[in-house]
Structure formats: structure tokens, C-alpha cells
Design goal:
single chain, Creatine Kinase, Chain A, domain 2, 5-stranded mixed β-sheet, 8 helices, 13 strands
């Protein structure tokens, strides 16, 4: 017997990931390839409980699109799905399908995600490691230094590697109890898939530590950094010689569509994008070399090599990466 963990995105705002388990007798898993199912892989769920349907017409359809070995359980496979209507049309909440229909060339448009998150002690409003009363020492020593939650981050890193997720690193972040992991770079659809599965794995790992994970862009008010999902983006032309010319052209295009991007870059992002704590004000757009206070940062290595990528620092930690990637491709490539 094998367990199949079906994952899909709900219709809530911010979007969250849901899951349900199917038990089957036989299932041949080939990572990231179409498996030999031996049964009908299409499944369904009650959309009225996930903000995706009304109670009187509640059926929604789960269509498997990718598989991952489940590193958290024996004899288990993760089945990442898209949500469809019963008439075989993509559900309005199906942001992955929107990205698929926007991609110009899946081998050329690359993204990488720097996913920040904050750990909280269960049933409290206190981040992990914070004192029972008052605030901890001001931020400064925590970034890539003495921080709480390293065991969680390392377990998550190992789990992502075992699942075949394109994870390339992790580090402690600026606020006590805050961490980051990096996905990619690689083709946009694949990296977005990997990020959603990585988010789900982190939630499950935190349960074992009696912790919860928050993707809120400003988990603690005051003189503390927020949490983002900085998105590194490039096209084939940007990665080739003199690609800096195309990066500059992309930044100029982005400057004309700033608010359109902000609309899909995460919920409560205005609480984070204040112009302080390594952000640019939400109503302002600017780009610069090595500028972490800009909307778009061009890394110093890119300036040196005259090719590479740019970092969009605007997306919030709770953003839907499919929508972020879709909007970047739409603005920069089309």
C-alpha cells in the first residue's frame, strides 16, 4: 500500500496550500515525470470549504501535474495538482495555469526565490526565541549569526533535497526567529512548483517542533525587518554577454507597471514596503546596483560581468510565486 499526498492551492487571500491523502495498492513513481498510475489519478474536493465554490455546486477537480517523493513519510508520494472545474476548464483560482499560458519559452525565462519566514511558538504571538516579556536585543547579531530555529531550517533543507526540490541554500535572517531558504534558479514553472511544495514541507516539519511558520510580510510591528520573497529573474538574453543592456531595459519596463505588480505581490505588503528596513516605499519605484533599499536590485557581480539577472525585492513572503512570475514575464518579455 502506498500513500499519495495530493496538494493544491486554495482560493483564499493570501493563497494557502491544502492537502488530502489517497491510499492505493500500486503506484510506480518517477520523480517529476508522468507516473504509471494503475488507477484514475483525477480526484476531487469540496470547493465550498476552500473559497473555491458555493455549497450548492461545490465539486472541484484535482489534476495531477507533478510528483515528488515525500521525505517525511515512508511509502508516500507528493502529488502536486492544478484545480479545474468539472467542465474541464481551469478554475479561476488556478494561478499556475495563468503562468503556463504566459510563458514565452520555458527554457529561457528563469526565476529564483528567496523565501523568508518567521517561526512562532504555538498558541502565542511571540516569535521563536523571544523572551516572555518585552523584546529581545535589537536586530543585528541574528542575520547569518546567533538565531533560534536552525534545527528547523536544517531539517527543511534536508527534506527538500530528498524530495528533489531545487533548493540551493538557507540562512538565518535579520529578526530573531526569522529564516530564509532559496529555491532555484531555473525555469519559472518548475521553480514555482518547487517553492509551493517546499512551503508545505516546512509547515509539516514545524508541527514536529511544536512551532508554526508565518509568511506574513510584517510579522512583528516596530523596528524589525519584514519578510519577503525576493524574486531573481532573468531571460536568456540577460544571461549572455552584454545582458546588462536587457536588464536595464527590463527595469525601465517595470517602472511603468509598478502598481500592477504590487497588486499581485502579496497581502498586507504595504506594512512591509515602507521605505525602511531594506525596502523601497510601496508607492515608489527605483532600481540600482547593490541597493537593498530599491525596488529592483542589480547585484554587484552582474554589474561587473555585464550579464546575469535582477532581484525584484517587492514580493511579500506570502505571495503566490505563479502570479509573481507571470507578471514579470508579461511585463518584461511581452
Amino acid at each position: 500500500m502506498q500513500k499519495l499526498e495530493y496538494l493544491w492551492l486554495d482560493g483564499c487571500n493570501p493563497t494557502a496550500i491544502r492537502s488530502k491523502t489517497k491510499v492505493v495498492k500500486e503506484f510506480l513513481h518517477r520523480q517529476h515525470e508522468v507516473p504509471e498510475w494503475g488507477f484514475d489519478p483525477i480526484w476531487g474536493f469540496d470547493g465550498s470549504s476552500t473559497e473555491q465554490a458555493e455549497g450548492g455546486n461545490s465539486d472541484c477537480v484535482l489534476k495531477p501535474i507533478k510528483t515528488y517523493p515525500n521525505p517525511l513519510e515512508d511509502n508516500s508520494t507528493i502529488i502536486l495538482c492544478e484545480v479545474f472545474n468539472v467542465d474541464n476548464t481551469p478554475h479561476i483560482s488556478n494561478s499556475r495555469n495563468k503562468l503556463v499560458n504566459t510563458v514565452v519559452d520555458s527554457t529561457k525565462e528563469w526565476v529564483g526565490f528567496e523565501q523568508e519566514y518567521t517561526l512562532f511558538e504555538n498558541d502565542t504571538t511571540r516569535p521563536y526565541g523571544w523572551p516572555l516579556n518585552g523584546d529581545p536585543a535589537p536586530q543585528g547579531d541574528y542575520y547569518c549569526g546567533r538565531n533560534y530555529g536552525e534545527s528547523v531550517g536544517k531539517d527543511h533543507l534536508d527534506a527538500c533535497i530528498m524530495a528533489g526540490i531545487t533548493i540551493c541554500g538557507m540562512n538565518a535572517e535579520v529578526m530573531l526567529g526569522q529564516w530564509e531558504y532559496q529555491i532555484g534558479p531555473g525555469p519559472s514553472i518548475d521553480m514555482c512548483d518547487d517553492l509551493w511544495v517546499a512551503r508545505w514541507l516546512l509547515e509539516k516539519i514545524c508541527e514536529k517542533y511544536d512551532l508554526t511558520v508565518s509568511l506574513h510580510p510584517k510579522p512583528i510591528e516596530g523596528d524589525w525587518n519584514g519578510a519577503g520573497c525576493h524574486t531573481n529573474f532573468s531571460t536568456k538574453l540577460m544571461r549572455e554577454d552584454e545582458g546588462i543592456i536587457h536588464i536595464d531595459e527590463a527595469c525601465k519596463k517595470l517602472s511603468k507597471n509598478h502598481q500592477d505588480h504590487i497588486l499581485v505581490y502579496g497581502v498586507d505588503n504595504e506594512k512591509r514596503l515602507t521605505g525602511k528596513h531594506e525596502t523601497c516605499d510601496i508607492n515608489t519605484f527605483r532600481y540600482g546596483i547593490s541597493d537593498r533599499g530599491a525596488s529592483i536590485r542589480i547585484p554587484w557581480q552582474v554589474e561587473r560581468d555585464k550579464k546575469g539577472y535582477f532581484e525584484d525585492r517587492r514580493p511579500a513572503a506570502n505571495c503566490d510565486p505563479y502570479l509573481v512570475s507571470q507578471k514579470l514575464i508579461e511585463t518584461v518579455c511581452k
